[in-house]
Write a structure and sequence with these properties.
ten-stranded mixed β-sheet, about 20% strand
């Protein structure tokens, strides 16, 4: 590992390119340190955990193998560094259920009791939730079906406004899997990796950009520190280091700065795009002491609070439950707001009987790229490889992504070991033959192809979407519906959706005067009852940020959310970015351009795909590298 200082010019948040033969030499602006390593990694999640676990395991088993000698520091072991934006490895935001087949392969003696909040999957059930208050937007066909179910009542198993499917479809089964807290799982994996002494993991170190030279990725540029909110240097300015690497592993998720900029610079495969998204938001609830819910219980729900919204309840050990919803990009209502919908969801009678005396312990949200294989980027290029959710590995038919992400990491590690032993460089040709070859021949690829068209039809109607999903699931993807779902920004409907213009104007004035978000007032106007706060489980959004989410923002970094063309924002009536902001970090500005409060941002990335005024595939909102976010291992 070598470090040197040089002078360079750079712009925060942009791709840092050097080495172009026809480019004039930049004017020196500041001292810039350069660090040379063998492998540089962006982001630490399940995919990177799988990569580093597999790499270090082979390394430990063959400590004298010359393949693991550093190329940048001869005589030293391989130099591997991983940089994570979040301030702690345990800041992963999700309670998940996973089949865990690849995770168990990596840890054959895995005992869930060793991982806080982990347990084997027990009983599974799927519930169709009827609307108990009559506020959701249901089609005539769905209302007819609901009426038939209500009429049949207990004869068909309808209880507490819910119909339990008589069987769980095989493609949804998680039998033999695990219920996990991603935050706790990441921390457990990270502690084992750090104990080996073979890799370094640096949390609280956002990566601002890939270093691209002649269309090859040569490493990572760390974010500048000691800047004001606009990115201008202050007296404490420290330029971000250039980390040069023979291989750059990109695993910073679907809204990560490195992944975004590689897509923008190097492009996507023809016909591929990140066009399907969802915001997942959940609460971690401490259940009442006498709760009958058993650890390992897994509930999947659909139909409420809106027909397009899917939900879940997973029970952890210690009388804890993760309860949440997924608000998809094909829900066209511009006033969609996940937190208010989540509060209505937990009060559905089928869930409320178990949750009503509970206490909120934590809360969180993140964007999910639901494009699957249709959003798969180039998996490898000269000097880099993509793994995890940002590589299109999530399977939206089975509703799973953690084990798929972990598997892509293990596959890349196996490919890296093969190339190191063969003495071959990390070129696109070599990485395609080894890493991509393994992935194409694996169960991850088979599942991705089966799920590729499973969500077609949802943008036309929920009923059509469910039929298409069932067809794809029951025929292993051989049958599905068309056409494909259009880009997320094209699904956002007019701000007058369901509300008369004159009432909309009144609500806007009243919301502004009362300091209340407009989208919250719009839901009330559409028939959704106000939330009766109890100060324990049903609390305000801001209280959730303070009590459950523990949001923080490190000083000295630039704002990571900005607006490319403020005039487009000023002309926008929908402001869906504000409605879907998980932490209320975006609010209405006096000039029509949203205000951004970094101290409230949970880095969910929802604003990026909830911009209705995008130019082609580029959002008018720029979501860059930044520190801070949620600080709760229970997430």
């Amino acid at each position: 590992m070598t470090v040197e200082a040089k002078t360079a010019a750079g712009v925060p948040g942009l791709i840092h390119e050097t080495g172009e033969a026809d480019a004039p030499a930049p004017e020196p602006e500041f001292n810039l340190q350069t660090l040379e390593v063998d492998i540089a990694c962006a982001g630490f999640g399940p995919a990177m955990g799988g990569f580093l676990t597999t790499l270090t395991r082979v390394w430990r088993e063959h400590p004298d193998d010359p393949a693991f000698e550093s190329k940048v520091a001869p005589g030293m072991p391989l130099q591997v560094l991983c940089y994570e934006r979040a301030d702690d490895l345990a800041a992963g935001v999700s309670g998940v259920v996973t089949r865990a087949q690849s995770i168990r392969t990596s840890f054959p003696d895995l005992n869930p009791a060793e991982i806080p909040m982990a347990v084997n999957v027990g009983h599974e059930r799927v519930l169709y939730l009827l609307d108990p208050i009559g506020a959701s937007r249901r089609s005539t066909l769905m209302r007819l079906g609901d009426a038939l179910l209500r009429t049949a009542g207990r004869l068909v198993g309808v209880r507490e406004h819910a119909f339990q499917l008589p069987w769980t479809p095989s493609f949804l089964h998680k039998h033999g899997g695990l219920v996990l807290s991603i935050g706790q799982f990441n921390q457990w994996v990270g502690s084992q990796l750090m104990a080996t002494g073979l890799v370094q993991i640096w949390p609280g170190t956002p990566v601002s950009a890939p270093i691209i030279r002649h269309n090859a990725v040569a490493g990572l540029r760390l974010a500048d520190q000691g800047v004001d909110r606009s990115g201008d240097p202050t007296a404490e300015f420290m330029a971000g280091m250039d980390v040069l690497a023979n291989l750059t592993v990109v695993g910073d998720g679907p809204v990560g700065a490195v992944a975004q900029q590689i897509d923008q610079k190097l492009g996507m495969p023809e016909g591929h795009a990140h066009s399907e998204w969802a915001l997942g938001m959940k609460m971690l609830i401490e259940l009442p002491e006498d709760s009958p819910l058993q650890p390992g219980a897994v509930w999947h729900t659909f139909g409420y609070p809106e027909p397009e919204i899917f939900g879940f309840l997973y029970v952890h050990p210690g009388n804890l439950a993760s309860v949440g919803i997924f608000v998809p990009s094909w829900l066209g209502d511009p006033s969609r707001t996940a937190y208010r919908y989540l509060q209505h969801y937990i009060q559905h009678p089928a869930l409320w009987r178990y949750l009503k005396d509970g206490t909120l312990r934590s809360w969180g949200a993140k964007s999910l790229d639901e494009s699957g294989r249709r959003g798969e980027p180039f998996l490898a290029g000269d000097g880099y490889a993509r793994i995890g959710e940002g590589s299109g590995s999530t399977n939206m038919l089975t509703g799973s992504g953690v084990d798929e992400a972990w598997t892509t990491g293990t596959q890349l590690a196996e490919a890296v070991v093969e190339l190191l032993r063969a003495g071959k460089p990390f070129t696109q040709e070599n990485l395609t033959a080894t890493y991509e070859g393994r992935r194409r021949a694996s169960w991850v690829e088979r599942g991705a192809r089966e799920a590729e068209n499973a969500r077609n039809g949802f943008h036309e109607s929920v009923v059509k979407g469910m039929v298409g999903m069932a067809l794809a699931g029951l025929t292993s993807g051989r049958l599905s519906l068309g056409p494909k779902i259009p880009p997320a920004n094209e699904r956002i409907l007019s701000s007058t959706f369901g509300i008369k213009p004159e009432l909309l104007a009144e609500l806007a004035l009243a919301a502004q005067a009362g300091g209340r978000p407009l989208h919250d007032a719009l839901l009330t106007a559409r028939g959704w009852p106000e939330i009766a706060l109890d100060g324990r489980l049903l609390i305000t959004h801001q209280d959730a940020l303070l009590l459950g989410g523990k949001v923080q923002a490190m000083p000295g970094f630039a704002d990571h959310v900005s607006f490319r063309d403020p005039q487009l924002c000023a002309a926008c009536n929908e402001k869906t970015c504000i409605a879907m902001c998980s932490g209320q970090a975006l609010t209405n500005g006096a000039d029509g351009v949203p205000n951004f409060e970094r101290e409230k941002c949970v880095h969910c990335g929802a604003c990026l795909w909830n911009c209705g005024h995008s130019d082609g595939n580029q959002s008018n909102i720029e979501f860059r590298a930044g520190a801070g976010g949620l600080h709760s291992a229970e997430n």
